[in-house]
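Quick board copy: two proteins, each given as sequence then tokens.
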Amino acid sequence: MEYVDYLGNVTRFAVGLVNTPASVPGDAEMLTEHEVAAPDAAELAPVLKLIREALGQIVDGIPADAVDALLRRYPPRMHLSDHDGADHPHIHFARNGEEPVRWIGQTVGAALAHVATGDPGLTLGRCAADGCGNFFVDQSKNRTRRFCSNTCASRTTVAAYRARNRV
């Protein structure tokens, strides 16, 4: 696994958490892979608020104070992991089996610090569809993605077509 792929996976995990908070967590596979139990929704709410704020600050290009807050509240415990094989070590920001909210705070906070500084080869965006506002990770070559899903893109295209054809 390349490091940017790991950062992309963690960032997509964070986006999934804030875009679909009713289905906590957004990516149970990542938690299972790292031996982390599913978090309690009430306990997760404060960190989700902070993650949502951090994503918004990064997308809006303003100082990412919420990323700093995540790092202060959930300092990463960096270590090398070889769960992809001894020939492919990469940095993890929290220990497997950590308490769920702490693991999420440590892992997401550290990954978003990389994103906020422009370090990885990925870009965050906010959906351009009216009324959506979901975040997305754009790892396309030209970084021109505008929508969180094909559904939002299609809905916007159909609305524009209908608006042009009104008599």
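And the next:
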Amino acid sequence: MMLLTKSKSLLAIAIAVGSITLGCSSTADSNSVIKEGATLVTLVNLHPDNKRKILYAVNYQLDGMMIPMCSKVEIEDIGEKEVEFVYNGTTYTYLWDKHTRKAGESLLQNISNFIGTSCDQSKVASLNALDQAGIKSGKPSIGMTKEGILFAMGRPPIHATPSTEGSTWMYWLNKFKKQAIEFDENGVVTEVRL
């Protein structure tokens, strides 16, 4: 009988802790600026699959059309695993993936790395000429800084690069091809390799 009472007590505690944890995560998302109907801007360049009008939370660096940083977007719909937004009259779907979810980043946390209330044009203007060229092209090159790479390409996927403090950032050009960017101790690109 005492074992049954202890089991019930432990179950009640587990349910209470679970409720608190769920409450915290939904509160964090409810404070997000990513809300249906919101007009926001891209914080970095986005590299969509332009044929299918899709962007991925793993931030594929797809060739083709680029949505430049500081572009206006309107959040149209937020689902459990995707956010739809409109850019220049075209609706794009931003897809959350299992890798990002397993790395502990929610859909709204993840998309907030790419879309927000204001882009930092003054910071971009203060960067060197190599950074400026890389941001304009959306491509990495030797001599760029970490800040320049972030504006040009966005944050590397969190599951492959948990911290941007490291000296190697991994990006995917598509589902099958990776790209590593190596930085020196000053945060300057020394190598871009496939």
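Board note added afterward: The longest strand covers residues 72-78.
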